[in-house]
Amino acid sequence: MDTTAPRWRRRKQARPQEILDAALACFAEKGFAASRMDDIAERAGVTKGTIYLYFENKEAVFKALVRESIGAQITQVIENIRIYEGSSRDLLRDAVTMIAHFAATSDRVVLPKIIVAEAGNFPELARFYRVEIIDKGLGAMTSVIARGTARGEFRKIEPDHVARILIAPILLSIFWRTTFAQFDAKPYDHQAFLKSHLDILLRGIAADGEAS
Fold first, then answer.
1. pLDDT at residue 11, as a whole number
2. CATH 1.10.10.60 placement within the chain
3. Which residues pair with 206 in a beta bridge?
4. CATH 1.10.357.10 in the chain, residue ranges
5. Which residue of 55, 110, 124, 181 has the smallest Cβ count within 10 Å?
6. pLDDT tens digits, one per residue of 142-163
7. What's the 3-state SS for the chain?
8. What CATH class has 1-55?
């Protein structure tokens, strides 16, 4: 009886994720431009040829990283919005909390930093990130604001502007965590930051908070 086959199959199935994990480490350490497929292969413990069995090139590796992490989170948020039956206030709080938790805990949040740093040299990656992540994320948040406005739960205010205002502090949290947190005298309280952000935002768009 061949007992090695199941282990081999498990290893083969796990290999794409191992390659992505290795690529993330390389990109975080060296940046996208300076990372080579050889570097990724060495960190993953495979040959460079093995990587090409799963990914066409380095750009495809990066795009897969984005899709399986940040993209998956946004897809889940969009699905939650689609089936949610409660108040728009609670829906908005839940959606933002989910995104903020990912931003505060996942090692994948280094990806937006890489995009910003290297967009000038790799505009196709920036375009991909815009379409796959930014447009979908902003679209989801805009739909929640529009939902609340239509129901009279939020005051009349441009949903697209609110969506950008909503996301901006989370992006600050991401860039702080991936760039400046190493210099903090003590770990920043991202949970308290999120609580303050939501409190200010929800008070600002509440139906009884009409601007003069």
1. 56
2. 1-55
3. 154
4. 58-205
5. 124
6. 999 999 999 999 999 999 999 9
7. CCCHHHHHHHHHHHHHHHHHHHHHHHHHHHCCCCCCHHHHHHHHCCCHHHHHHHCCCHHHHHHHHHHHHHHHHHHHHHHHHHHCCCCHHHHHHHHHHHHHHHHHHCHHHHHHHHHHHHCCCCHHHHHHHHHHHHHHHHHHHHHHHHHHHHCCCECCCCHHHHHHHHHHHHHHHHHHHHHHHHHCCCCCCHHHHHHHHHHHHHHHHECCCCCC
8. mainly alpha
Judge contact between 106 and 24, C-beta under 8 A.
no
Asked if residue 176 lies in contact with residue 71, where contact means CB atoms within 8 angstroms, the answer is no
Both tokens of 139, joined, read 């679209």
CATH for the 58-205 domain, from 1.10.357.10, 1.20.1290.10, 3.10.20.340, 1.20.1280.290: 1.10.357.10
